[in-house]
């Protein structure tokens, strides 16, 4: 009988460890999605306006010589 109790304890600890792994995987997935969202915001709020400003000035500079 003690062997069966041991096997039950082992299976309980295995299910606990698998649920812990599932929770860790879920947490890692959520952190990954938050990081991707932050990168998307960085791109849309900082990098795209800077690129637009740079290319706008570059093309307007060359546009003044093209129209003359």
Automatic annotation (TrEMBL):
Origin superkingdom: Eukaryota
BP GO terms, sorted: mitochondrial outer membrane translocase complex assembly; protein insertion into mitochondrial outer membrane
Low complexity compositional bias, start-end: 7-18
A Pfam cross-reference name: Mim2
Location of the region described as Disordered in the Swiss-Prot/TrEMBL record: 1-22
Gene Ontology CC terms: mitochondrial outer membrane
InterPro entries: Mim2
Protein name (record): Uncharacterized protein
């Amino acid at each position: 009988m003690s062997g069966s109790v041991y096997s039950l304890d082992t299976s309980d600890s295995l299910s606990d460890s698998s649920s812990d792994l599932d929770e860790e995987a879920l947490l890692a997935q959520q952190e990954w999605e938050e990081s991707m969202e932050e990168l998307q915001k960085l791109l849309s709020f900082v990098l795209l306006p800077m690129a637009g400003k740079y290319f706008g000035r570059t093309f307007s500079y060359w546009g003044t010589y093209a129209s003359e």
